[in-house]
Amino acid sequence: MPAFKRYSKRIKLRKYVDNSYSILIAPSCFHQIPRDIKKHQFGQKYCIITDTNVKKLYGEEFLKLMRDQGLDATMISFQAGERHKTLKTVEKLVSQMVQLGHNRKSCVIALGGGVTGDIAGFAASMYMRGIPFIQIPTTLVAMSDSSIGGKTGVDLTSGKNLVGAFTQPKKVYIDPQVLSTLSKKQVKNGLAEIVKHGLISDKGILRILKKNPEKALNAHTTTITQLLIRSCRVKGRVVEKDELEKGLRMILNYGHSIGHAIEHASNYSLNHGEAIAIGMNLENRLAVDKKILSSKNCERIEELLKLIKLPTRIPAKIDRKPILKALTKDKKNQGETYTFTLLKRPGTPKIVHNITAQDVKAVL
Ligand SMILES: NC(=O)c1ccc[n+]([C@@H]2O[C@H](COP(=O)([O-])OP(=O)(O)OC[C@H]3O[C@@H](n4cnc5c(N)ncnc54)[C@H](O)[C@@H]3O)[C@@H](O)[C@H]2O)c1
User: Fold this and answer.
1) Top-level CATH class of 22-180?
2) Measuring from atom 5 of ligand 1, which residue has the nearest CA?
3) What CATH number belongs to 184-240+249-363?
4) DSSP 3-state of 135
C-alpha cells in the first residue's frame, strides 16, 4: 500500500450578508427613476427586461429617459402572459443579454408586472452566476406583492413557480400613476393580495377598502398609494423576519392553499386574484369549522371581498374533484395532511398543521 497522506482544508465562507434595500412609493416618480439609478450606480450597464405590452406603454420611454441620463442601457422583451413564464423565455433573454454585451457589472431592470419581475429577477440571479437587479413594478399585484421579497422563478408544465431562486432586488421603485393604463380586472387581481395583507397583519388596510371601495377599484391615486404603503409594509416586515420562507413567511400563503388549487382546477379561467379571494373565504370557513375564527368575522370578510367585486364561492361549472387533486400536488403540501395559514380574527393569522383533505372537502 502506498503511503497515504491525508489532507483536509476547511473553506471558510461564513460571512455577514446585507441584502437590505429600499422601496420607494411616489406618485409620478417614473420620470425621476433613471436619475436615482444613476446616483446609486447599481451597474455599469443596464438591461431593461419587459414584456411586449409594457414595452409599448412605458418601456420605450423609460429607455430614452435612461439614455438621457447618460446611462448605458438596452432593452429586451418577451411575449406578455403567464404562458411565457418559462425556462425557454429566460434562456432566450439571457442569450440576448450576451449578444448585447452585458457582463458581470451589468444590472437588470425588471419593468412590468409580476411575470416580468419573476422572469427578470430569475434571469439576473443566474446571468454570469448572478448580477444585481431592480424592480419597477407596473401592475397592482407586482407593486403590492411580487416585487418585494426576492422570490423569482418560472413555471414548468407540471406546475407554477417550480424553478426559481431567492434573490433580493437592489431597489424597488413604485409609481402608482402607471396603474392608470391597467385594466379593472388586473386592479382587482392586486386588490385580492392587498386584502390578504390586511387580513394577516393590518386592519388599517381593511378600513381603507371598506371606506373607499370604488376608489380602490378605480386605482384612485391617493387611495391606492395609501393601500400600497401599508401593503408593502406588511410584506416587508414578514420578509425581514423570514427571508427564505422557513417559517413566518408562510402566513403570506393565507388564501393561497385552496386558492392555487382552484386556479389550477379552473384551468386558469379564474384569474389569480379571483381564485385567491375564493380561497380566502373558503379557508375562513374551514377556520370556522375548526373553531379558530368566529362565523361573524367570516361573514364580515366575505362582505368586504364582495364590496370590492371579488368572488367568494367556486363557480358551479368548476368540478370539485380536481381541486383536491391539485392541493396534493402543491409543493408546499407534504404527506397526508396540509399546513394552512388560517385566521383567528382579521389581522391575526395562525399556522395550522394537520388539515386533512376531508376538512377541505367540507368547505368546497
Ligand atoms: N415573486 C413573488 O413573490 C410573487 C408574488 C405574487 C405573484 N407572483 C407572480 O406574479 C405573476 C402575476 O403578476 P401580474 O398579475 O402582474 O401579471 P403580469 O405580469 O402578466 O401582468 C398582467 C398583464 O398586465 C399587463 N401590464 C403590466 N403593467 C401594465 C400597465 N401599467 N398598464 C397596462 N397593462 C399592464 C401585462 O403586460 C400583462 O398582460 C404570476 O406569475 C405570479 O406567480 C409572484
Assistant:
1) alpha beta
2) 146
3) 1.20.1090.10
4) strand
